[in-house]
TrEMBL record:
Gene3D superfamilies: 1.20.120.1810, Winged helix-like DNA-binding domain superfamily/Winged helix DNA-binding domain. Pfam families: Sigma70_r2 (PF04542), Sigma70_r3 (PF04539). GO terms for molecular function: DNA-binding transcription factor activity. GO terms for biological process: DNA-templated transcription initiation. This is RNA polymerase subunit sigma-70. Residues 144-157 form the RNA polymerase sigma-70 domain. It comes from the Bacteria.
Amino acid sequence: MDKNLFLKNMEEMIQIAKTNGNQIDHKELLDYFSDYELNEEAKKLLIASFVEAGIRVLGVDEAQIVAEEEAKEKADISEEEQGAIRFYEEELEQMDLPGEEEQKELIHAWLVEKGDGEAVIESFLPQILEIARTHTGKGVLFGDLVQEGNIGLLEAMAIYQGKDAEGFLAHAKSAVEDSILDAIAIQRGSDSVGEAMAIKANRLDDASTFLSKELGREPKIEELAKYLSMTEEEVKEVMKISLDALSVMEADIKQS
């Protein structure tokens, strides 16, 4: 199997599904990849990858497939990794962390009144650990996942320009997960394609929707780039891939 071609096909189908309301029929999906002669396990993994990218796969029990894949990933976690997770969880239990509403107040104070940024960073530790925990067993050590999540949070804090605590929460969580997924993609040797690109496309859509409401107009590329902690070139690249996928879909419709 040509891995690069397979990842490219996945990227194309994810973008096509996004133009169709973030959904695709499972028969259509499997037919598209029929030339690869996938076994049942590979088919489940393919469907799970689309679900994780935010695509609804019609005609299958998405929750069951994702749960099965997560169970396999957990089974692959070494005792050393399980020990690292327990260590962080025990540290968390000993910390006096704010609740959900108090965290929002801390964020608001930091955004509006230039409050304590360190307190905001500390308050995010439970979210970072939870996101890191969902991505264990994917080739990157748990401690490294936490570190990448912290880097994503710091980048989000450096870039965010708004004053809304809810908006920052959504932005920061996306930045944390994106940083972790980028690290996993790099480890797998598939950076800028497949999963990493799908996540960026999802974040771009979410950012465009949020900023449109905030600004009362369509956001500019530089505004999207600042909000997403991406370069303007990266934003343009993701936009181009989305447009290319739409062109593919329109061509398929005309041929049918």
